[in-house]
Amino acid sequence: MDNQVLEVLGYLPKNIRESILHSGNQIQNIEEIRLRANRNILLKIGQDEVKINQTITTSEILEILQRICDNSIYTYQSQICHGYITIKGGHRVGITGNVVVKDGQVINISHIYSLNFRIARQIIGCSNAVLPYILNYRDNSIYNTILISPPGRGKTTLLRDCIRNISNGILNFHGLNVSVVDERGEIAAMYKGVPQSDLGERTDILDNVSKAIRYENANKVNESTCNSSR
User: What is the fold of 3-118?
Assistant: First the structure.
């Protein structure tokens, strides 16, 4: 059994967990577990969607939410307002419900309707084939690079491994300091301040902050440093 799947199943009540385990499907290949109030369980396995004939109640949804929030939903309020929670192992739980907005900002999601567990898997070495197009071995630098693909084709997985290789170094490329602005907490998958994904030994991470804010602050720091040195 895939350890990543077992990590996620551990957050589910026993009856739901056993229904998934005994469904006869390829449990080790599950990518998503979708739980909707008063609806059947849906599993995403590769390109297929599998339905398990077991209805989820609103009380079970709340019970699971309490578990993933370590019985302190208030502590996770900021993540909930972004529509997801990152749990141990780097797995993300998407949340939908009644959105409460104030002054144009989401301040809460109440009456939770559904939870979507997206199982995280890091594939070490998956970027090796594209590194010659990204790394400038002559100058030990990297080329400006954009990763483009349809949804669900592995952009984040590829990017994560590129960062790891750039940070650690590979073959004749010496590792570089890397700054990751992880706007939605998908790359490093921080859990209680600890990255659940291996992004390399020279990587610094700013989690859940917009790129615009990060770059603006970086410019201010640089300006301050320049002014202080004059």
Answer: Beta-Lactamase (3.30.450)
Amino acid at 116: N
Tokens for 206?
């700013």
Name the β-bridge partners of 170: 173
Tell me which H or E stretch contains 15. helix 14-21
SS3 of the chain: helix, strand, coil, percent, to 5: 35, 30, 35
pLDDT, block means (10 residues), the chain with 230 residues: 82 93 80 95 90 94 93 84 87 91 83 92 92 94 93 88 96 92 81 86 84 58 38
Task: With beta carbons less than 8 A apart as the criterion, state whether 162 and 199 touch.
Answer: no
Rg (CA), the chain: 20
Q: Where are the alpha helices (DSSP H) in 27-74?
A: 58-68
Task: Tell me the pTM.
Answer: 0.77
Domain limits of the chain? 3-118, 131-225
Residue 26: name the closest of 44, 41, 14 by CA.
44
**156 vs 184: CA distance, rounded Å:** 11
Cα–Cα–Cα angle for 16, 90, 128, nearest 5°?
Answer: 125
Q: Determine the Cα–Cα distance for residues 112 and 2; give it in Å rounded to an integer.
A: 28
